[in-house]
Amino acid sequence: MTSGVIEIEGLRKTFHSLRRGRRVAVDGFDLLVEAGQVHGFLGPNGSGKTTTLRALLGLVRADDGRMRVLGAAAPEQLPQVAGRVGAIVESPQFYGNFTGYRTLRLLALAGGVPVSRVDEVLEQVGLADRGDERVKGYSLGMKQRLAVASALLKRPELLILDEPANGLDPAGIREMRDLVRALAANGVTVLVSSHILAEIQLICDHVTIISRGRRVTAGPVTEVLAGFDHNEHLVRVDDPARAEELLLAAGLTVTGHADHLVVSGVPDPTEVSRTLGEQGVWVRELTPLRPDLESVFLELTGAPAHPGVPRQVDGSTPAGGPAADQEIDLGVRGVDA
Amino acid sequence: MNLIRAELERLGARRFVQLMIVLLMLAFGVTAATTLAGSHQPSAVELAEAQRQAAANLRGMELEHERCLARDRGEPLPGDEGFYLPPDCSELDPALRDRLPVAADYLTGVFTFTRQAEPLLYFLVAYLVLFGFLVGASYIGADLNSGGVVNLLLWRPRRLTVLGAKLGTLLGAVLTVSVLASLAYLVTFWVIAQVAGYPGPTNAAFWADLGAIWGRGLTLVLLAAATGFAIATMGRHTAAALGAVAAYLVVWELGGRIVLQILEVARPDQLMLASYVGAWLAGEVRFWDSTACRTVVDSYCDGSYTLTWQPALAVLLLLTAGLSASAFAIFRRRDLI
Ligand SMILES: Nc1ncnc2c1ncn2[C@@H]1O[C@H](COP(=O)(O)OP(=O)(O)OP(=O)(O)O)[C@@H](O)[C@H]1O
Ligand SMILES: [Mg+2]
């Protein structure tokens, strides 16, 4: 048996509605999250992340596919492991007339968790002082914190967070990051979906990217990024035109920009500075352009095809790579901080 | 067990339930107060006078019966001539009457328990039926809508258990409230009769009758609660239950009745749910079928028929069980979003 904490193979889900007909939400999706990972789950709007998580948690019925959570077949054997899985799925709603404390207490009661845990988690998500207020008086971020608190209540081994940062302020996002890191340090496996890619890059060690209901890439963050590293370097000189000539003459691939050049396919930047320096063109700046998750994400799922034309939610690139007409300018976005 | 405790707390904390109970107490208080204000304890003289009137009335009935029997025997009629006497003297036999005149019938401005208890109880049952239905529908409707069910299912991924616990809690709570309310209600009016009115001849038969109405009323309340719960579950919304009932009443009980009349369908009342509710509550209900005597020209024709409580109960139980079973079946498979 593998150490998969979450194993999904060939998940398919089609929604049927009388008016709009069929809508394929998840189309043969695979996901493997192993114990101890902090796994980022990325995808454009409407790509099927939430649907996948709902199917995994038994909230929607999958049409096809095999799913296991902590070794139990989902959704049939979910009851056996539910006590070890904490989850929030797409901004959970709470009954507005209850206080935060009571909301959690009722869940603890129903789930057989000691009620003393409620104060602990409220403290943990920063709601300790506001727990006795009605949920309908909470702000978006406070509701989100309450949701996270509800997921933490049972001291889960596996934490599934669907857009936990939704509505959080910068401090809240940082707290969320610290929280996830602390949990991970305690051996909790975390699957987190988010659109804040910089955040994912900071906290996750593995990612899976979904587009149009299919997995387009998966693996350790470093490997995924390395796979998109085209060995590009940004070069600034006083005379870009001459530098471009020299570099082209040296057989390098160069793209000219207004105030800089991008040289690709050079594993070793010394080659660039030597080529230019030998001809008396002195390099003012030479920066490796490493792809970040955002550039990889956009390359995989399709960036805006034409400036000024809003991309539609289902306009993501089908699985298998970027569309031919979409050129991605890794250069500017990819500058390492 | 914990699940039920949590559900009970959730139910009790609902604003709507609290409002309905306050309204119940308000209606109860107003009825009791006006009754108390408009009633006085009959004096010995009033009572003696009322008893005398009742006795006189009874004697009058006996006299008439005797005159009728005398006519049948061919004897000269005692007393006044010219009174109409029916062909069948048993129609006049006081011993065969449903109820004989009692002193309470001749007391004015006096609250008489034996005379008023029944309509008062019917009023309470009507309120409790409404209470049960609305609470049943809004309890699950609001929970489905507010995401409470989804949250709970993340903790207890057994849909039938969760829904069953909710239905069970609802029925238990509604029954408890109904029993307590109706007991408090009857006891209050009993006390009012004792101190500021007239209890009336409370014999075993009276209590048995009242007890039967009470039991049947409470059963109806439970059926209404389950029906509201089931329809709201199927429609995912409190309003679904209200809409379904309103639509049924308008389309079938009103519109359907007119159409059935135009089509001259025999015994249209047999097809109306309201008839069965009435028959169950009252023990039996007589209906007049206008189509039955159409072909009978001059001989005597009795177009009436009765609905008794046994088939009425069967119909109501089947309906509620059917709706509940469908609700569970649908809920088991449904995508919860
Ligand atoms: N209940 C539903 N009925 C019909 N279609 C649905 C339903 N839920 C989701 N979908 C469709 O399934 C697709 C995937 O939706 P899903 O919510 O899984 O996306 P997502 O990846 O979570 O997006 P986001 O990033 O916006 O949260 C979308 O096209 C959506 O319209
Ligand atoms: Mg989503």
UniProtKB/TrEMBL annotation, chain A:
Region Disordered, annotated ranges: 304-337
TM regions (residue ranges): none
GO molecular-function terms, A-Z: ATP binding; ATP hydrolysis activity
Residues in ABC transporter domain copies: 6-237
Listed PANTHER family: ABC TRANSPORTER, ATP-BINDING PROTEIN
Protein family: Belongs to the ABC transporter superfamily.
Protein name: ABC transporter ATP-binding protein
Source species: Verrucosispora sioxanthis
From TrEMBL, chain B:
Residue stretches spanning the membrane: 16-37, 120-142, 163-193, 213-232, 239-263, 312-331
Superkingdom field: Bacteria
Keywords, in A-Z order: Membrane, Transmembrane, Transmembrane helix
Transferase keyword on record: no
Signal peptide boundaries: none
Protein name (database record): ABC transporter permease subunit
Organism of derivation: Verrucosispora sioxanthis
